[in-house]
Amino acid sequence: MRFHALMISCCSACFECENDAAYYAKESYTLLLNGKALGERRENVFSLFDLAPDTDYTLSTLSGDFALPFHTRAQSACLPVRDFGAVGNGVADDTAAIQMAIDACPKDGRVTIAPGVYSIRPILLKSHITLELQKGAALLGSTNEADYPVWPATAGRDAKGAPVVCAAWEGRAVPSHQALLSAQHAEDIYIVGEGLLDGNAQNATWWMDPKKRTVGRPRMLFLNACRDVVMQGVTVQNSPSWNLHPYRCQNVGFYDIRVRAPKDSPNTDGCDPESCDGVSIIGARFSVGDDAIAIKSGKAGAGELVFPRASRHTIRNCLMEFAHGAVVLGSEMSGGIDTLSVSQSLFVDTDRGLRIKTRRGRGKHAVIDGVSFSNIRMRGVRTPLVINMFYCCDADGKSDYVQSKEAQPIDEGTPYLGSFRFTDILCEDCHAAAGYFYGLPEQPIGSVYIENASFRFAPDAQSDCPAMMCDIEPCKKQGLFFENVRDVRLKNVCIQGEEGERVHLGNTDSFTEE
């Protein structure tokens, strides 16, 4: 067995096995660190903690067939938050003590949070630090909404005269409550450890009547215009809304993390990179009340704001155990999405698996292309593959303009979906449909290529709507449905247990199957 390093901090490291299995290795394995056994592992991505800074290590296998030397980052100082008065008893407000430790930390220093429960209000991170949540440490969010200041949507102008965005929610710059952890225009930040970041929203009022709110709810982590940020090992749970929200960031990595929320918690997406360049989500485990991972790039009609493209994202070796969609593109994608790779992942009991959603009005720059999905395993997913250009869940999502199935003029609001490639997809116990692809009549989906794919329906499959659009009926055991797709190519595709048409083709220019 071979493995490579994903990230190395001053006190931790994360590695990935080199194989083709989805999330779990085919066999368990035992690792050695400097000759000392670390115990048996099963996941493809694993972490090491409690490492010494600026130190040489060698990671090897018990079989002795591979060894990997690595060196931890140096640190300038180590500041325990208890030295600043933090108590960690779950009652005292430890916000000021933790914030003082962060503010006092010199460049390339580490702030350590020892075991205990630290009740906090929002904390602001800064550049060039490592925040370590040690095993047994929990940052517990206040349940008082007044403790979460409201950031303005924009403030002032930059050197080019554009508004400086401070807060955003669902594709627009809008006033939003400060996240439990946040950073603004910062760089070189590590958030590592085996500790817990708990939003405590189940004991607060954040999940009540969310549609009536005019101010964005807090996220657990909000990164605005940051670069070179890593989160590793941490468990994140019970967020007031989205859990992890990098916004207009560069080079962000989420490695070996766990994100969880109740199934019925509103808008508790796992990780939503928005208008970012270079995001890696590897070895992550999600069970949330909305989409597990949603790639976004803003919403058209946001005034003078220009939304950068979402580009160069990698999702690999992840496990989604419950979510509306496992990996989702859109629907806020007005800046476009390209160069996205999703591979070697396992989806269990999600409503949809790989899901692309958009609608009329997203804009002429709302282009998704250069996207590949490969080596994905699904169990109990209601509809494994979905591309929907009639997404109905905006305030105006049910308007005639959005939902009309008659061809409309191609204009400034018309999105475009290019080529999509699905390879090595194994789906067991599907329910509604194997795949549902519905383009615009005036702007059909460019091409869908499915190769080496198997779909088997559950004997007791339940009816469900395969896509969130108006005027479609719930279905079960439907095969592959294509409407307004220019080019459809199937190669080595097996569907078992379907009822009715194996493949439906409507307004399709070309179809080939091998």
Defining key terms:
single chain; 514 residues
In short:
The protein has 514 residues and is mainly β.
Give your account of this protein's structure.
With 514 residues, the chain is mainly beta. It has two helices and 45 strands. It has a 23-stranded parallel sheet that branches. Strand 16 (154-157) and strand 17 form a beta hairpin. The longest helix has 10 residues, at 95-104. The protein is globular and about 65 Å long. The relative contact order is 0.08. The model has no long low-confidence stretch (mean pLDDT 96).
Cα(first) to Cα(last) distance is: 35 Å
Q: Strand content of the residues, in percent?
A: over 45%
Largest sheet: 23 strands, parallel
What is the number of E strands?
A: 45
Mean pLDDT: 96
State the share of residues found in helices, binned by percent. Answer: under 10%
Structural class: mainly beta
- What Rg do the Cα atoms give? 23 Å
Unreliable parts: none
Shape: globular
Number of helices: 2
Please describe the topology of this protein.
Blueprint: E1 3-8, E2 13-17, E3 24-33, E4 36-43, E5 45-48, E6 56-61, E7 67-71, E8 78-80, E9 89-93, H1 95-104, E10 109-113, E11 116-120, E12 123-124, E13 129-133, E14 137-141, E15 150-151, E16 154-157, E17 163-165, E18 176-177, E19 181-184, E20 187-192, E21 196-198, E22 221-224, E23 227-232, E24 235-237, E25 244-247, E26 250-255, E27 258-260, E28 277-282, E29 285-287, E30 293-295, E31 310-316, E32 319-322, E33 325-330, E34 337-348, E35 352-357, E36 367-379, E37 383-388, H2 400-403, E38 416-417, E39 419-430, E40 433-438, E41 445-457, E42 478-483, E43 485-496, E44 503-506, E45 510-513
Parallel strand pairs: 8-10, 9-11, 10-13, 11-14, 12-19, 13-20, 14-21, 19-22, 20-23, 21-24, 22-25, 23-26, 24-27, 26-28, 27-29, 28-31, 29-32, 30-33, 31-34, 32-34, 33-35, 34-36, 35-37, 36-38, 36-39, 37-40, 39-41, 40-42, 41-43, 42-44, 43-45
Antiparallel strand pairs: 1-2, 2-5, 3-4, 3-6, 6-7, 15-18, 16-17
